[in-house]
Amino acid sequence: MKLVTVGTVAFDNIETPFGKADKVVGGAATYIALAASYFLKDQGIVSVVGDDFPKGTMDDLRKRGIDLAGLEVLPGKESFFWSGRYHYDMNARDTLETRLNVLLDLDPVLSETYRSAEYLMLGNLDPVIQAKVLDQAEAPALVAMDTMNFWMDSAMAKLREVIARVGILMINDSEARQLSGEHSLVKAASSILAMGPKYLVVKKGEHGALLFSKERVFFAPALPLDEVVDPTGAGDTFAGGFIGYLAHSGDHGFNNLKRAIIVGSAMASFCCEKFGVQRLLELNREEIDQRIRQFVELVDFDIELV
Ligand code: AMP
User: Fold this and answer.
1) 263 lies in a domain?
2) The pTM is what?
3) What is the CATH number for 136?
C-alpha cells in the first residue's frame, strides 16, 4: 500500500458567521484521504467509527479508491463528534464540544499490507496512538505528522518523542510558536527542526503556508476565494493533497516539496467552498489542474531591479 493515514473519521457540527451545518461527515483522516485520492489510488485509513456512521459515505470513500479495512466499526457505539464555531475572521474558531466516543477504544493493529505502506500520515490524534501506528510501520519512505495545541498542553513529552521520529511536521503558526516557545516563525522553525523532522510546514489559514528546511524557506499564498463557506478540514485537506502528491511522485527533495505545498493549497481552497467533505467528493482532474494554474499565476511576476 502506498499511503496509510491514521486520524479521526467523524461527525461535525459547524457554525460560521454566514451559515450552519449539523452532523456533517468530517474528521482529519476523511479529509486527508479524500484529498490524497486525487493523486493515488492505493491508500487506506486507520480509524474507528460507531455503527451510526453512514454506509453511503463509506461507499463514497471506497469509490475513490480508499481502503477501509483499517476502519473499525464498533456496534452500538457513537462516532467521534466535534462541534465548532468560527469567528468573523474565519482563521479563528472555538471548539464548542468534543465527544471522543469510539476514539477511546482506538488501539490500532495494522495488517501486513498497512504495515508495509511507503507513506504514513499521522493525523491529529493522541500522540500515544500516533506512536502505536509508527511502531508498526516497517520501513516507510516518509512519515508526515499533524498535531494541535491540546496535545502540547496535555502530553508534551510523548508528543516530542513522536515528533523526533517523523520526516515532516505540519502544524499551524500558533502551534509552531507554542511548540518552540519562539514568537518569530523563523526561530520557531529552527528550534522545531532541531527536534528531529527534516522539514516543517507551517499553515497560516487564509494567509498561506510556509515550508522550512534547515537551509531553505518557501512561501505559498492561499487562493483568495470569493466566498469561504466552511474552512473546517482545510488544514487536513492541505496535508492530504501534499502527501498524496509526494507519494505519487516519489521525490522528497525541497523543490518537489514546494510543488506539493501548492497542490495542498489548491486542494484546501476547494475544501472551503462547501460544508464538510462535500466539495472533495465531487472534484475532477480538470478543476484541480485549473486551480493549480491559478496558483502559478497568483505568484508570477517580473521585476527589473533598479
Ligand atoms: P482542521 O479544520 O483541518 O483542523 O480539521 C477539522 C477536523 O478535525 C474536523 O472534521 C474534526 O472532526 C477533526 N477534529 C477536531 N478536533 C479534533 C481532535 N481533538 N482530535 C482529532 N480530530 C479532531
Assistant:
1) yes
2) 0.97
3) 3.40.1190.20
Ligand 1 contact via 98 beta carbon (within 6 Å): yes
Residues 240-253 as b or e (16 or more Cβ within 10 Å = b): bbbbbbbbbeeebe
* Domain-located, residue 16: yes
Average pLDDT over residues 63-74: 98
Domains held by the chain: number: 1
H helix count then E strand count, the chain: 12, 14
Q: Give the Å distance between the CA of 47 and the centre of ligand 1.
A: 13
- Distance from the alpha carbon of residue 191 to the mean position of ligand 1, in angstroms: 26
- What cell was used for 97? 464540544
Hey, whose CA ends up nearest to atom 13 of ligand 1? Answer: 27
The packing angle between helices 28-36 and 234-249, to 10°, is: 40
pLDDT tens-digit series, residues 271-290: 999 999 999 999 999 999 99
Look at residue 101 and tell me if it is in a domain.
Answer: yes
Q: Mean pLDDT in the chain?
A: 97
Question: What is the arithmetic mean of pLDDT over 43-55?
Answer: 98
Among 14, 81, 82, 238, which is best to mutate for testing ligand 1, by the most ligand atoms less than 8 A from CB? 82
DSSP secondary structure code for residue 78 in this structure: P
- The pLDDT tens digits of the residues spanning 161-203 come to 999 999 999 999 999 999 999 999 999 999 999 999 999 999 9
28 CA distance to ligand 1 middle (Å): 5
| Residue burial 190-229, b: 16+ Cβ < 10 Å; e: rest | ebbbeeebbbbbbbbbbebbbbbbeeeebebebbeeeebb
Would you say residue 306 lies in a domain?
A: no
> Domain residues for 92?
3-299
Which residue is it, cell 454566514?
18
User: Do 265 and 258 touch, CB atoms closer than 8 A?
Assistant: no
